[in-house]
Amino acid sequence: MRRLGLSRRQEVRRPSDELGKQEWWLADLAKESGMSKNTLYNWVRRGWVRCRQGERGRWIVWADEAEIERLGELHRRPTGYYTRQKWIRGYQT
Known about the structure:
Layout: E1 23-25, H1 26-33, H2 37-46, E2 51-53, E3 59-62, H3 65-76, H4 81-92
Antiparallel strand pairs: 1-3, 2-3
Helix pairs in contact: 1-2
C-alpha cells in the first residue's frame, strides 16, 4: 500500500551520523537511481558496488554523481549482457 501511495504514514528520512560524504542507504540509492533494492543488493554481493555495513547491519553505499550514472547505465543493459559477452569474445579469438 505504501508503494502505491495509499498509506497514511509519511516516511521521514533523517540524516544519519553513520553516513559520510556521498554515502547512501542502499534503499535510498536504489530509489534515487530507479532500480529495485534487490538489484542493488545483488550488485553489492557481486562486488560491483563500493559499500560497507553500518552499525545495525544496514548497507551503506558510496556513490557520487558519476557512480550513480554508471549504476544507471549498468541497470539499463539487457539481462544476460555479461554472460553473452563471454561467449561473443570466445568466438572472436
